[in-house]
Amino acid sequence: MKIKYSFIIPVYNREKYIDRCLNSILKQKIFNIPFEVIIVDDGSIDETEKHIRNYLSPHIHYLKIKHSGPYIARKIGIENAKGEYILFVDSDDYITEEYLKIIDQNIKDYDILEFGFYSKDAKKNFLPYDTDSSIYLKHLVSSRYKGYGVSLCIRAFQSNLFKKFLLENYHYYYAEDLMLLVHAYQHAKKVGNIKQVLYHIYPSDNSLTRSQFDERRFSAIEIEEKILQILKEYNQHYDMKKEIMYSKSFILKGVLVLSSHLYLNNYKVYIKNKNRLKTYVHQYSSFAAFYYLSWKMKIGYFIYIISPTLFVFIFKHYILLRKIHHEK
Known about the structure:
By secondary structure, the chain is α/β, with parallel strands linked by helices. The protein folds into two domains: 5-201, Alpha-Beta Complex (Spore Coat Polysaccharide Biosynthesis Protein SpsA, Chain A); 215-327, no CATH class. 48% of the residues lie in helices and 16% in strands. A hairpin with a 4-residue loop joins strand 6 (112-119) and strand 7. The radius of gyration is 20 Å and the shape is globular.
């Protein structure tokens, strides 16, 4: 029987979470819907592999690679996928029991199907926004600004959307989800959405404050710049002015956050790139871009312009206060 759905799960040191993730897939309330699960282990050094091997079967495949980052793991998963549709699941997260059933009932007419998700960190549900444009890249950027996530995991994809992307020589260590999404939305003929929560995002110890910070983090800013350039090209034929401002505000926000975390987690890299970070801020500053920042980021922006050191000092204590609050 031809495989209809390919679940792709990149995993790295997730011995605490991988059982919950895989069990949520195996508990799907479906009948006669052929699917496969492709687990790509990005060089785990804990007990992740031992847990995974308990689940292996003819339709659950395990590939272990040298630690190369999440983009390479996803790419290998896509290359090995045989399904008509691709479903990404992060190993920290889990899906509802009716996830596959509901997707299968709705995806027939779409290249991309968006659905709702629950974020345990935010403690609330997020639902996709209806598109008011046939320019789906415009829809992606505006939905992102309104708060609907950029994760690959809250969407189902026609597998052919990624074939051309795999031929291009991209290699991003961070924010790879975003570049894959932009490519998919550029080439999608029809995008739909479901106003139901099918996916649960669970915060883990892979958060921004705990993960490695080095110069590879700048790839996230470079991706934002690439998206901005794509939007400018679209603007020659479609009205993308608002989306361009959204994009510039994302760059400003990214630089402010990156500055703070580099300062706190890798001071040598921060000092080495201090002028580079300042250049980004001045290059993308404008009243319109500033307007689309959150009020917290607006305050942070003004402080950064006055003194980057003061900004980082305040950010450090803000993070500390949040940590104390969560521990209460």
